[in-house]
Design a protein that fits this description.
Helix content is 24%, strand content 30%. The protein is α+β, with helices and mostly antiparallel strands and 63 residues long.
Length: 63
């Protein structure tokens, strides 16, 4: 299996708050991890503090 987490920081990188935004995204995602089996096909959108979709995480079968 392959786990992928991708975040688009856009051109501004959250205007100097990239570290705080990425910390928040990872904390939120990590806290919800127990709700998934982590099998191929699992995944979800990732949101920043403004509730804008900024990325995704997914589990796929090994290539």
């Amino acid at each position: 299996m392959k786990f992928t987490l991708e975040v688009d920081m856009a051109d501004t990188g959250w205007e100097g708050n990239a570290v705080q935004e990425l910390e928040r995204i990872l904390r939120y995602w990590g806290g919800n991890l127990r709700h998934y089996e982590l099998k191929p096909g699992d995944g979800s959108a990732l949101y920043d503090s403004g509730h804008r979709e900024v990325g995704t995480w997914s589990v796929t079968a090994q290539r």
